[in-house]
Protein: Transporter
Amino acid sequence: MKRARIQIIASMTIFGTLGLFVRGISVSSGELALYRAVLAALLIGLYLLVTKRGIRLPDIRRELPLLLVSGIAMGLNWVFLFEAYRYTTVSVATLSYYFAPILVTVVCPFLFRERMTGRQLLCSCMSTIGLILIIGVSGFGRSGTDLIGIAFGLGAAVFYAAVILLNKFIKQVTGIHRTFLQFLSAILILSPYVLMTGGVHLGDLSGSGWINLLIVGLFHTGVTYCMYFSSLRELPGQEAAILSYMDPLVAVIVSVAFLNESITGFQIIGGALILGFATLNETWARQ
Structure:
């Protein structure tokens, strides 16, 4: 359990830097999502080949539909998130997207009969207030593009919550095999989408664009998703959801420190609530 907590915290911290690299890749959101899935699948496929950890069809046949659907949800989640980055700031896009853990926290008691303690409810509510402060104050009331970005972020949140919940139903497929198959499923849905909405434009990328793409595909996706989904198998849904708030907090810091995007007092208060109660939840979970 301790290792799983460390893995998910590290994963969320890395995910929080995603917007910094995505901003340097000049292709459409669908195309970027496709390349992300392809690069990550190649990396994990090579690892499985070298370590001779093949996938046996009898072991995955029963859960293949769940793997397929969760992979499709993952690909659509990326498309919506990347679109959100294009219409609003990285911080607002990411924080809009992070209504997903709230959805998971609410749904888990019904789907998995996980008991929600009073402490978890308090942490979830206070973290939600933090998100409301950040999104409600810094997003709404601005330009129409901000509202479009928030809408895309919330759309990404729905698909992200679906990925988390579907993974809780997958019991027989190990973390790295599961992630590999989900990336293949994402490629399956994203390939025709990209071909029908503009095609491939890899030749338009600059040298820095290629570097950013490789970082996003190999590191942020291939390596980090393996850590993330492996940790989900060992943690209760509510705890994983609340620890996931590390991602938007890091995204706000990256947005201000590296992308020179503005931050308000309400964003600072909201970020403090998210970090404080996520940490408090982890402390209580160890007791």
Q: What stands out?
A: The chain is about 80% helix and 0% strand.
